[in-house]
Amino acid sequence: MTLTGSCMCGEVTYQSTSQPEVTALCHCTDCQKWTGGAFTANAVVPEESFSVVRGSPKYCDVAGASGKNNRHFFCPNCGSSLYTRLDLMQGKIVIKAGGLDNGLASLGGKIGVEFYCKDRVAYMPAVHDATQELRFG
Known about the structure:
metal ion binding, zinc, carbon-sulfur lyase activity, Metal Binding Protein, Guanine Nucleotide Exchange Factor, Chain A, three-stranded antiparallel beta sheet, eight-stranded mixed beta sheet
């Protein structure tokens, strides 16, 4: 099954021919700042399975908490967060789940891991049965 997704305005579309290897929430302050939310919901896929089908995303490079680069891709028109390439996760694409089509933003109701739990907002409890990591890596 192919995963597909897009930005809010539809200018950028993408696909992955792989199912997520990992489903994760990230509570790091970088993700909070990038999305304007308390965390990001993510589907991690092999880089070789991922492609941009339409449009040309812009990106912003930010040093993550690890000190390594986080390259955030977004729509140049509407600004939607699309995906990330992390130097810490070579060969992987971290798709922001909110852009996935066909109701897949819920990640099937299964979160495998939560990263940067040390930065989790106080009003949000841990996801039941998800591995809890204070940091990443």
